[in-house]
Amino acid sequence: MNKSKGQLSLKAHLLTALLVAFAPFAAPIVAVAIILAIVGIVAIVSVKKRRSRKKWPSMKDVEEGVRLFEVKKGQVLNIELKQHGRLRRGYVRITPLSNEAYILKITGKKAFRVARNLTMQFEPNRVKVDR
User: Which of 10, 1, 75 lies closest to 41, judged by CA?
Assistant: First the structure.
């Protein structure tokens, strides 16, 4: 299906068309409610589309990007992962043998899963996961 980024789904178009079709037969208060419903539908659909467009970088992008922190296997004291809550961010705390801890803030379930999988592949016996 060829859809541009701003194009709404067929379900949203159908619901909006039904609301517009019945608006002339409704009382003024109901007509205002219908207009607000249309605006709400369009807003919800556009927010969902915007969230789904987030493109995660590939491993090649990560490897070629700017490195703020680098540690080799065997040089890690511990890796602590804390999952995010409703009002707080999660984090990954990497403590190397030779330096102070480096903390990465993470939000969202997908980011936590990616961080957990990467750290488990890197040093599985040094990883501590708090939920």
Answer: 10
Task: Write out the two tokens for 106.
Answer: 């993470």
pTM exceeding the 0.90 threshold for the entire prediction: no
Concatenated DSSP letters of 26-45: S-HHHHHHHHHHHHHHHHHH
Closest CA to 102 of 111, 91, 113: 91
Relative orientation angle of helices 10-22 and 28-52, to the nearest 10 degrees: 170
Per-residue pLDDT of the chain (131 residues; tens, 9 = 90+): 555 555 667 777 777 777 777 767 767 777 778 788 888 888 887 777 666 556 666 767 777 777 777 888 888 889 999 988 888 888 989 898 887 888 888 888 888 888 888 888 888 888 888 87
